[in-house]
Fold Ribosomal RNA large subunit methyltransferase M.
Amino acid sequence: MNKVLLYCRQGFEKECAAEITDKAARREIFGFARVKEDAGYVLFECYQTEDAERLLREQPFDELIFARQMVVVGELLRDLPPEDRITPIVGMLTGAVEKGGELRVEVPDTNEAKELLKFCRKFTVPLRASLRAEKILLNYESAKRPVVHVFFIAPGHCYVGYSFPTNNSPFFMGIPRLKFPADAPSRSTLKLEEAFHVFIPADEWDERLASGMFAVDLGACPGGWTYQLVKRSMMVHAVDNGPMAPALMDSGQVTHHREDGFRFRPTRSNIYWLVCDMVEKPVRVANLMADWLLNGWCRETIFNLKLPMKKRYEEVSQNLAMIDEKLKANGINAQIRARQLYHDREEVTVHIRRIWGAVPGRRDER
Ligand SMILES: C[S@@+](CC[C@H](N)C(=O)[O-])C[C@H]1O[C@@H](n2cnc3c(N)ncnc32)[C@H](O)[C@@H]1O
């Protein structure tokens, strides 16, 4: 198996391809990305067969921005015979995976492919039984063993391969299923909730999303992001000239500032979270976030960078590099991650966590 299959948002195949080509090359893994516009996935074909698995092991999935899932696969299985689709799939996996811990039969996240999902659900049951009989899958689910993926791009046509549970998305199709809370003021509430799931390990929620924390929400109206913070019993300074949802204001946990988010300065020194969903040029938002971190006005931040139509991977990379440089130049240690979330459209979500302690070799002068 010499290909790495990456699932992505439909319309972002070029960005996903540019990113994997760039990040693979930094590991001296060379190949080329096959891009089909609007396919909802990208294939990165390695020149050296063994490099596909090396890339899967060495490229941290968390550091990919545009990929929702990362799987090693072989050649496309075409025209599977309807009377026996299982044998060719078992054949492809034999020798490649042993004692897998889970089976996911998936499709690209496109309208056309959605039709196939019903079939996938039904097909999973007999396929799982056969894979278990062949010892390609264990007889029980295990989160410690490789995940077997069968990815149908059309009826009878699929890629088959595996991912590692320590370096993949834990979600079916790479998409966390979140339920829209009926009392939230806007659908974008799901972006922040998804960001929490993606960026903050579940066992750290009690500490890092704790009740009583103070938060600032820039570009808060009507309050979908503020809602997430209020739900976790935080006190929120919501900054926006527009109106906030009355039910949020009635919670008694929100102070509304009708101000420009670029001029707003915190009035307290114990703000833990800064979140920002202002529709603005990415470079302006990135600079503002860097300033908050440099000044020690927050500990963690989650913000969206709204992307231009062209060179979107380059735009995100440049802004992240700029923030990284600024922080390092000031002796600030931080963990920076970005992801195009399922609930993001023409944008990516960035998470930065300030970690106490200076960057090695630099003096913290503040
Ligand atoms: C996408 S909406 C935010 C939606 C919000 N996160 C939610 O979940 O309901 C963007 C908001 O940013 C606000 N905004 C844009 N530029 C701003 C600025 N310079 N200062 C404050 N708010 C700004 C707009 O008024 C708008 O309400």
Summary: Residues 219 and 240 are 5 Å apart (CA to CA). The chain is about 30% helix and 25% strand. Residues 362-366 have pLDDT under 50 and may be disordered.
